[in-house]
Amino acid sequence: MSARAVLTTTRSVRRRLDLDRPVDLAVVRDCLEVALQAPSGSNAQRWHWLVLTDPDQRAAVGQVYRRACLEYLDSPGAAGRLHEQDPERSAVQQRVHSSVAHLAEVMGRVPVLVIPCLRVPGGGLPEGNQAGLWGSLLPAAWSYMLAARARGLATAWTTLHLAHEREVAEILGLPADVHQGALIPTAHHTGTGFKPAPRQPLDEVLHLNKWA
Q1: Burial classification of residue 2, based on how many CB atoms lie within 10 Å of its CB (0-12 exposed, 13-18 middle, 19 or more buried)
Q2: CA-to-CA distance for 182 and 157, rounded, in angstroms?
Q3: Which residues of the chain have pLDDT under 70?
Q4: How far is Cα 130 from Cα 195, in angstroms, rounded to an integer?
Q5: Helical (H) or strand (E) element with 65
Q6: Residue 155: how many CB atoms within 10 A of its CB?
Q7: I need a labelling partner for 97 at 20 to 30 A (CA). Which of 69, 82, 89, 180 fits?
Q8: Other C-beta atoms lying within 10 Å of the C-beta of residue 68
Q9: For the segment 1-12, what is each residue's pLDDT rounded down to a tens digit?
Q10: Angle (CA) 162 69 23, round 5°
Q11: Residues facing 208 on adjacent strands
């Protein structure tokens, strides 16, 4: 696959995750090797990666995720409540809402769950701008997802479980100075391949030199 093809067809896959086909851990490791080539602030490389394959661990995290997801789906900011005044975009949002609800029910059964984490000196997160902090982890997590796509795997990006981050940390035995950045279900996918998603025209969001 070309770089453009990988970048434009790496979708958040929720309904089409194959829950029954095992994922070769060697392939996941290969994707993480790619992820470790991403940039990090001061080249500190404070990232850590939890890869969950144990059924009990996956089920336990899945239960927390389901609870967090149901809270989200009932909130004003849920996907299905966005763009209600635009029939075309609302229809897309309703499909996203439905797929999020589906993932909530099956998260604990996805063959591999990957949780990218940061180890923060002193343990506490800094006040104010944290862009540099999370910018030292999230590009690597995205690289993992791109590498998985290139190898025929499907993933989804979600952070909903972070509403109960400490509970998940206790399940996983995380030290107090380790903070989770995302939850990435990883599986083979059902059906055919993926295509680019509808997006706003570039000129509606592009600003040259200044906002106006």
Answers
A1: exposed
A2: 7
A3: none
A4: 33
A5: helix 55-73
A6: 27
A7: 180
A8: 23
A9: 899 999 999 999
A10: 80
A11: none
Dihedral-angle region of residue 187 (phi above 0 means left; psi in -120 to 50 means alpha; beta otherwise): beta
Residue-range domain boundaries for the chain:
3-204
Cβ 141 vs Cβ 118: under 8 Å: no
The residue type at 165: E
First-to-last C-alpha distance (Å) of the chain: 38
- Model pTM? 0.93
pLDDT confidence of residue 181 = 97
Q: Is-contact 108 60, C-beta < 8 A?
A: yes
C-alpha to C-alpha distance for 69 and 189, rounded to whole angstroms: 22
Task: Please give the DSSP secondary-structure letter assigned to residue 37.
Answer: T
Q: Which CATH number fits domain 3-204: 3.50.30.60, 3.40.30.10, 3.40.109.10, 1.10.357.10?
A: 3.40.109.10
